């Protein structure tokens, strides 16, 4: 590492610490100042307060069932998609994995439209919304199972299965299951399940909108966040936030450790082959794929159709008509809500602001980790874990961290600083950028750089003429991922910007849907905004798909 | 022992047409020909991994043409040894038989290799383990798809001699496909040039 690289590395670590870690530390310090340092008391307070009662049990139980259902639905899809050849396979894969990039609030709108009075009208008892929540989590996370398992199946050297067919202990399907498929797929299924559990555990938008009474730790935290960290005022809120975030931190940390362990096991020496080798056709597979496509597309289509379907209330009956009134209302705005264009502008500003900070910061951090791997592997590992820390924090905690951290530094900034959501989005996206760029740097062939060196090219020239063009795919994926995550981010934005004048598209959806249901335009207008956000993320997703490497075995 | 009658297969172009092969007990046959002439496809059809367009395969007089690969009792050694990386050498041998691992490994010149991880093996060692496993399964016929081609010359000559001796000891009939005529001469009792049929 030369002096210029050292300077940028130290600067990146300093900036990362200043904008991500320090606000969180300030926030925790503030909350502890109010509540005192007693983790057991924090956890006990969760069941002692009416607002957070049963949230621990509910969080674990719903996450568990969501994970089970996700595997049950996702694995057969991954199996038939990976094992057999399909017409337009890349397109099929894209539409089946689309839900993962759709913001959770849109998923919530989709499932509400399907099950609510504008759809099947089955939101009548608790069992209905319980299963709606579990299915919506399965819908959201099905892509994880497909992304983790399908590449393993589609790129496995077919000789492994063929060789087993010709050996006495590979004759039956069950013996092949035992000797081949279980060993090769278990780490992938476990890693995907682990991530599904984490996402369901920290689910906010879906829980907020689909459940009637029960709350997860995340939604409880978001609910009481406005009164947390204030001495002498509703101090139980600080206990609840600390208790919830403490449990979440432990669970997420354990999950991260498990994920990292499972990821290492997934990087085994199983030889991969080109996807083109998988030539078998299986018409029966359509019985799995068609219902899966229907399941995946239904909430998306419901949101689009729901934006045009307006309730027509007359004296004697309720009927529905097709109309653009919802769109008009969304674009027009009102005294209570800004127009769609304003929220869209805010969202785009925030996402580009996030990109400008998170991409170079994440790239330099990844590059620093990579260079340290050669000279100082311990320091490299410490820095890698340090950059992954925000993964162990939920979005609500990050939002709260930014809010309380800024209040501690400059109280008026919490209300005057328009770009506050950018800070929260940077904290959330930098670890993803590092995770996308680092493998690309590791797989970069050093001989390209060495050859450029002996040709007399400078550091600057080598970076722009050699490294950047060769890594453009990963950088583009990181760019699009950062934009999409920032655009659809709800949990942290809800805490940081919900009461501000600079609300984002997800916050506008949340606000519009929160209007009384007797207003016939409540559902169509929120669905109209959701459609706009969905179309933007879908376009971004299609760009990512074009540059994604099928051999990356399910990474981002 | 093994009779292939009028075998035909095409993939865009005709790979082999009305091909007849007879193999006696203990006989070793080499099929030679340039890359892409259909040698590997022929082996895959004989062991049942691919379907023939037409023709019949008889093993000890029984028609096995429509019998699935896993029930034919025909072994195959791939060009690159297919060893399962989640299993040790012994674990890989267990896929063929749970007994006589030590004896099988001694036979292929790898004594005390039972507990080795397969990713620590060299190319030649890996191919020997794959051979030990194939022989432990007691195949009716062993098919060899250029298993010596990835090895250096000294190693391949040694392995060719060892494998031939082992097959002759057991009177196990075998078909080797290769594009290397010297290798074919050294290993087999007779040769067929697929490109000239």
From TrEMBL, chain A:
<keyword id="KW-0813">Transport</keyword>
<dbReference type="InterPro" id="IPR035906">
    <property type="entry name" value="MetI-like_sf"/>
</dbReference>
<feature type="transmembrane region" description="Helical">
    <location>
        <begin position="180"/>
        <end position="207"/>
    </location>
</feature>
<feature type="transmembrane region" description="Helical">
    <location>
        <begin position="7"/>
        <end position="28"/>
    </location>
</feature>
<feature type="domain" description="ABC transmembrane type-1">
    <location>
        <begin position="56"/>
        <end position="259"/>
    </location>
</feature>
<feature type="domain" description="ABC transmembrane type-1">
    <location>
        <begin position="344"/>
        <end position="544"/>
    </location>
</feature>
<dbReference type="GO" id="GO:0055085">
    <property type="term" value="P:transmembrane transport"/>
</dbReference>
<keyword id="KW-0472">Membrane</keyword>
<feature type="transmembrane region" description="Helical">
    <location>
        <begin position="283"/>
        <end position="305"/>
    </location>
</feature>
<feature type="transmembrane region" description="Helical">
    <location>
        <begin position="128"/>
        <end position="149"/>
    </location>
</feature>
<keyword id="KW-0812">Transmembrane</keyword>
<feature type="transmembrane region" description="Helical">
    <location>
        <begin position="343"/>
        <end position="365"/>
    </location>
</feature>
<feature type="transmembrane region" description="Helical">
    <location>
        <begin position="385"/>
        <end position="407"/>
    </location>
</feature>
<dbReference type="Pfam" id="PF00528">
    <property type="entry name" value="BPD_transp_1"/>
</dbReference>
<keyword id="KW-0997">Cell inner membrane</keyword>
<comment type="similarity">
    <text>Belongs to the binding-protein-dependent transport system permease family.</text>
</comment>
<feature type="transmembrane region" description="Helical">
    <location>
        <begin position="60"/>
        <end position="82"/>
    </location>
</feature>
<keyword id="KW-1003">Cell membrane</keyword>
<feature type="transmembrane region" description="Helical">
    <location>
        <begin position="94"/>
        <end position="116"/>
    </location>
</feature>
<feature type="transmembrane region" description="Helical">
    <location>
        <begin position="475"/>
        <end position="497"/>
    </location>
</feature>
<dbReference type="InterPro" id="IPR000515">
    <property type="entry name" value="MetI-like"/>
</dbReference>
<keyword id="KW-1133">Transmembrane helix</keyword>
TrEMBL record, chain B:
<keyword id="KW-0813">Transport</keyword>
<dbReference type="InterPro" id="IPR003593">
    <property type="entry name" value="AAA+_ATPase"/>
</dbReference>
<dbReference type="InterPro" id="IPR003439">
    <property type="entry name" value="ABC_transporter-like_ATP-bd"/>
</dbReference>
<dbReference type="GO" id="GO:1901238">
    <property type="term" value="F:ABC-type tungstate transporter activity"/>
</dbReference>
<dbReference type="Pfam" id="PF00005">
    <property type="entry name" value="ABC_tran"/>
</dbReference>
<comment type="subunit">
    <text>The complex is composed of two ATP-binding proteins (WtpC), two transmembrane proteins (WtpB) and a solute-binding protein (WtpA).</text>
</comment>
<dbReference type="GO" id="GO:0016887">
    <property type="term" value="F:ATP hydrolysis activity"/>
</dbReference>
<dbReference type="InterPro" id="IPR050093">
    <property type="entry name" value="ABC_SmlMolc_Importer"/>
</dbReference>
<dbReference type="InterPro" id="IPR027417">
    <property type="entry name" value="P-loop_NTPase"/>
</dbReference>
<feature type="domain" description="ABC transporter">
    <location>
        <begin position="2"/>
        <end position="197"/>
    </location>
</feature>
<protein>
    <recommendedName>
        <fullName>Molybdate/tungstate import ATP-binding protein WtpC</fullName>
        <ecNumber>7.3.2.6</ecNumber>
    </recommendedName>
</protein>
<dbReference type="GO" id="GO:0005524">
    <property type="term" value="F:ATP binding"/>
</dbReference>
<keyword id="KW-0547">Nucleotide-binding</keyword>
<comment type="similarity">
    <text>Belongs to the ABC transporter superfamily. Sulfate/tungstate importer (TC 3.A.1.6) family.</text>
</comment>
<keyword id="KW-0067">ATP-binding</keyword>
């Amino acid at each position: 590492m030369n002096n210029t690289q050292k300077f940028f590395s130290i600067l990146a670590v300093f900036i990362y610490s200043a904008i991500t870690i320090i606000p969180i530390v300030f926030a925790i310090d503030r909350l502890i100042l109010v509540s005192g340092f007693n983790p057991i008391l924090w956890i006990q307070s969760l069941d002692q307060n009416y607002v957070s009662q049963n949230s621990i049990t509910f969080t674990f139980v719903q996450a568990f069932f969501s994970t089970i259902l996700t595997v049950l639905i996702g694995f057969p899809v991954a199996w038939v998609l990976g094992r057999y050849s399909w017409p337009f396979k890349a397109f099929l894969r894209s539409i089946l994995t689309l839900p993962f990039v759709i913001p959770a609030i849109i998923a919530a709108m989709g499932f509400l439209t399907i099950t609510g009075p504008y759809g099947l009208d089955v939101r009548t008892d608790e069992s209905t919304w319980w299963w709606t929540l579990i299915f919506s989590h399965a819908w959201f996370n099905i892509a994880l199972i497909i992304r983790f398992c399908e590449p393993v199946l589609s790129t496995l050297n077919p000789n492994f299965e063929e060789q087993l067919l010709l050996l006495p202990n590979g004759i039956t399907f069950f013996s092949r299951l035992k000797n081949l498929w279980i060993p090769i797929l278990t780490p992938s299924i476990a890693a995907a399940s682990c991530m599904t559990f984490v996402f369901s555990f920290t689910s906010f938008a879906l829980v907020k909108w689909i459940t009637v009474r029960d709350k997860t730790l995340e939604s409880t935290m978001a609910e009481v966040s406005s009164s947390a960290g204030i001495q002498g005022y509703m101090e139980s809120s600080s206990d609840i936030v600390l208790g919830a975030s403490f449990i979440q931190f432990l669970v997420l940390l354990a999950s991260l450790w498990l994920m990292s362990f499972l990821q290492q096991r997934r990087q085994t020496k199983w030889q991969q082959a080109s996807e083109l080798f998988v030539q078998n056709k299986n018409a029966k597979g359509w019985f799995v794929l068609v219902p899966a496509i229907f399941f995946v597309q239904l909430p998306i289509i419901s949101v689009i159709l729901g934006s045009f379907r307006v309730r027509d209330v007359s004296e004697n009956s309720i009927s529905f008509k097709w109309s653009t009134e919802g769109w008009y209302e969304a674009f027009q705005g009102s005294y209570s809500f800004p127009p769609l264009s304003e929220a869209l502008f805010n969202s785009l500003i925030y996402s580009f602001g996030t990109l400008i900070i998170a991409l170079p910061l994440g790239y330099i951090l990844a590059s620093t980790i990579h260079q340290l791997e050669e000279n100082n592997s311990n320091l490299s590992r410490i820095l890698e874990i340090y950059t992954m820390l925000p993964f162990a924090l939920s979005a609500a905690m990050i939002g709260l961290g930014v809010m309380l951290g800024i209040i501690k530094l400059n109280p008026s900034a919490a209300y005057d600083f328009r770009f506050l959501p950018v800070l929260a989005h940077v904290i959330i996206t930098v670890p993803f950028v590092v995770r996308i760029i680092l493998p690309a740097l590791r797989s970069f062939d050093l001989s390209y750089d060495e050859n450029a060196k002996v040709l007399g090219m400078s550091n600057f020239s080598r970076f722009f003429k050699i490294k950047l063009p060769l890594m453009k795919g990963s950088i583009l994926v990181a760019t699009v991922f950062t934009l999409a995550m920032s655009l659809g981010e709800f949990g942290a934005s809800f805490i940081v910007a919900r009461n501000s004048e600079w609300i984002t598209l997800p916050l506008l959806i949340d606000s519009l849907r929160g209007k009384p249901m007797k207003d016939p335009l409540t559902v169509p207008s929120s669905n109209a905004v959701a459609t706009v956000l969905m179309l933007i993320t879908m376009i971004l997703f299609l760009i990512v798909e074009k540059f994604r490497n099928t051999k990356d075995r399910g990474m981002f | 022992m093994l009779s292939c009658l009028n075998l035909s297969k095409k993939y865009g172009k005709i790979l082999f047409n009305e091909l007849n092969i007879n193999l006696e007990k203990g006989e070793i046959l080499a099929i030679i020909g340039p890359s892409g002439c259909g040698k590997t496809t022929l082996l895959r059809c004989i062991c049942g991994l691919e379907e023939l367009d037409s023709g019949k395969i008889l093993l000890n007089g029984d028609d096995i043409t429509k019998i699935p690969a896993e029930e034919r009792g025909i072994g195959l050694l791939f060009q690159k040894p297919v060893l399962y990386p989640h299993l040790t050498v012994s674990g890989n041998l267990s896929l063929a038989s749970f007994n006589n691992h030590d004896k099988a490994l001694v036979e292929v010149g790898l004594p005390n290799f039972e507990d080795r991880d397969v990713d620590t093996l060299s190319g030649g060692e890996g191919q020997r383990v794959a051979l030990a496993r194939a022989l432990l399964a007691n195949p009716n016929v062993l098919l060899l798809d250029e298993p010596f081609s990835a090895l250096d010359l000294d190693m391949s000559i040694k392995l060719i001699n060892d494998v031939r001796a082992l097959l002759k000891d057991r009177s196990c009939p075998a078909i080797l496909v290769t594009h290397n005529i010297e290798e074919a001469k050294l290993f087999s009792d007779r040769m067929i040039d697929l490109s000239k049929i």
